Amino acid sequence: MPIFGASALQFAFDRATTEGKVTIGALVIVSLLSWSVIITKIIQLTRAARATRRFVAAYRETHGPLDLHHRGEAFNGAPAFELYSAGAKELQFQLAKHPLLVDGETKINQFSLDSIRVALEEAAMQEALALEKGMIVLSTAVAGGPFIGLLGTVWGVMETFSGIARANAASLTAMAPGVAGALICTVIGLLVAIPAMFAYNFMVTSIRAFTAELDAFGLRYATLIEHTYVDARPIGEEVAQAVGKALYDLGDRTRAIVEPTHP
């Protein structure tokens, strides 16, 4: 017995009409595209999972938001690391451009923390888009493959019946080859859609897990930055210190103008 009905498929393909073979060619192209996406996404998600495990293990051993950044460690392919890197860079920028000196330590204000949160959200969105890239091909194969195959089948059946009508030979022997050639389009359409469907469902679940972990990590990292670097003094104390510093600077400039300079 032929394995997987190979002889039946060959027989049906040989009897397919030109329109049916064009449909099969289109389905083959869709299949190649979907399999290229499947292989690429499997490699991407596998690497991302491994790199994320290494990053999370290293991050848990740190004590400050910038420890890994200062050590220059990189975990390429880990979405959470890209999020961490974006937040660390924005934190360093805010510490350099808008520093607050509190008890000998450099802090940032709430507005700087808001900027860091925006950077984390943007990085999370970019990583989510990178993970979802190419998934439209799989969803198109799942939804469109059977319909393209059905179009080829209906067209082939129509050609078969019209040919029988012209030949005035309405018999099963006359109809069977044409119907078989038409049905192969539906078979190929299902063969395209079924692997894409399983791969799509698996990958969507994995991507959702990644994006959920990204959101959770962004919240945890922002909270750690807030506890470590954000000035937690009451607003009145901050205003008083700012006013005092401004008056002190004004006094220095006034004395420089009033007091004569001696050679």
Describe, in plain words, how this protein is organized in 3D.
Helix content is 82%, strand content 2%. By secondary structure, the protein is mainly α. It folds into two domains: 3-232, no CATH class; 234-263. Strands 1-2 form a two-stranded antiparallel sheet. The longest helix is centred in the last third of the chain and has 58 residues, at 172-229. It is rod-shaped and about 100 Å long. The termini are far apart.
Instruction: Tell me the domain tally.
Output: 2
Cα shape: rod-shaped
Major sheet strand order: 1-2
Mean pLDDT across the residues is 83
Helicity range: over 70%
How many H/I helices?
8
Helices and strands, with pairings:
Layout: H1 6-15, H2 18-60, H3 67-71, H4 79-97, E1 100-102, E2 105-107, H5 110-132, H6 135-167, H7 172-229, H8 235-258
Antiparallel strand pairs: 1-2
Helix pairs in contact: 1-7, 2-6, 2-7, 4-5, 4-7, 5-7, 6-7
